[in-house]
Each structure stands twice: as C-alpha cells, then as structure tokens.
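sorry for the late reply, my laptop died twice this morning and i had to redo everyting from scratch. anyway the thing you sent over, i finally got around to it. pasting the sequence first so we're on the same page, its 289 residues, then the predicted structure underneath. double check i copied it right bc i was rushing
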Amino acid sequence: MLSVIALLLYIAVANGQTGLTVSELLYQPVSGEAEYVELYNNSSQPVMLDSYHVVRWLGDTLDRHYELPPHVVGAHEYVVLTTSAASVVANYDVKYLDRVVECDMPPYPNTGGSVVICTADGAVADRFDYSPSMHSRLLRNKAGVALERRSFQRPASDRGNWFSASSACGYGTPGYGNSQSTETLAEENSFVFSSTVVSPDGDDYQDVLVVEYDLSDGGLMGRAEVYDARGAKVRTLVGSFLLGTSGALVWDGLGDGDRALPPGHYVVQITLYGIEGTQQVVRRAVAVR
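ok and here's the structure:
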C-alpha cells in the first residue's frame, strides 16, 4: 500500500509543477537564530519543491542558485525554508513540523534585499523586494518579527501587500496562514474528519467518513471531491454547494456511480470559494480498506 507521502508525490507529478510564491520572510531573527522564508502553493494541485530554486539576487543579476530538496507542497499549503528547523521551532508556534525544510539559503540583509524564487530552468516565479520600512512604525525592535503577505491576489511587488506579523501569533506564522492575511476563508480546524479510514464493508464500523464543518461566517461556496493515488478524481461528493455556518459531508468510501474502489490511500479535497474570487483548499489523506 502506498504511503501518504508517495500518494502526494504521485499527485504532484500527475498535475504539473506550478504555483509557489513568496508568503513570509524573517530576515532579522533574534541574535543567534536562523532566518526563514515561507512559500505558498497558490494553485489547486500539489507541486514539487525541488522543481524550484532560491536565488541570490545582486542588483539585476541572478548571482547564485540554491537547489531545494525533494518535498511535496500540497495545494494551497505552505512550506518554510530555513538553515535551522530547530531554531524556527524554538522561536515560533510551528503547527506542522513536516512543513519546515532545512536547506542552503542566501543571506537576507537586515537593511533590505530581495527574495527570489525561480523554476529549475531559471525563469523567475516570484520576487519580493523587502525593506525595514515595510514593518509597523510602532515596532521599536524588529528582531524576530516576520513580514507577512496580506493577499496572494496582489503581487509581491506591492509594498502595501506586506506587514509585520501580529504579536498575538508570536510575530511569525511559519507553515500556516498569515496573521495579516485578508484571504483566509476558514481556519485549519474548521473541518473535522471522523477518521482517517473508511471501510465500506457493511459491518457498521467506519462504513462512512463524516466531515463536520463549523465556520465563523456563512455564504461560502464549496466543492467536495475525492482523488486517487494517480491524482485522478474518483468521486464528486458535492459539485457545488452553499455552506452554512455549520454542517456535515459524508463519503461512503465508494467512487462515482457507487463503484467499489480498490484499497489504498485517497485524498478528500474541499475547495472553498469567497465572494471576491478567493479560494482555500482543505485536503486530508484517507485510507480505503
């Protein structure tokens, strides 16, 4: 049986390698600690991190490429690049340890600079030119405070699209939604899955998977689908529906047309749509037995 990581790798390969953009930057860590760059997969399919490079940008020249290690970045998920995962974990509330990736990185000067990510063939995928003036003017000490992107619908070059991470989150949100985001439609824990296993054998134990949701605001549209290990859609649970503030979705472990699915790992994907065109994807790996 495929592991969850292998499943995500298959889906990434099947659906192409696009979507990473700069989401957050800690360029001035507390003395002795490590910098980090957070990237966001702004697409509806997983991508492979090693299909991108981080680049040291000097003036108008790509001075040096830093290859990134193999890692799957799920649809609408984050990955944190740093030279020391232990440093990031020690200084911030890291909710997803598997999203923190150690790698070689260019230094990011405290006086300002550029974060540049390229595709493996050298095309610039995103560039963020940062400066200390982007921080809140109320901050006396910027050490340990990350700059967060407000919206992925606006370019990284928009200076007004960046601001200091909130003190309420410890001045950084490595690996999950930005505290200053204007796009979050639902919290990570808004969707609760009854199990990681569904066993449609009629024995009244885990015969169905129930996904309960509890949202702070109603009025969102959504889709709910199931994908197999090859990235092929095998079931549309709900093609398009209007979510209330609470409710539940049910999957009986079968494919479209009530056909039996082979045992293995699958992904339940729920896509939320906001009224201004924003999207958010909730994905969970579930085993069919």
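The longest strand covers residues 233-242.
thats about all i looked at so far, will dig more tmrw
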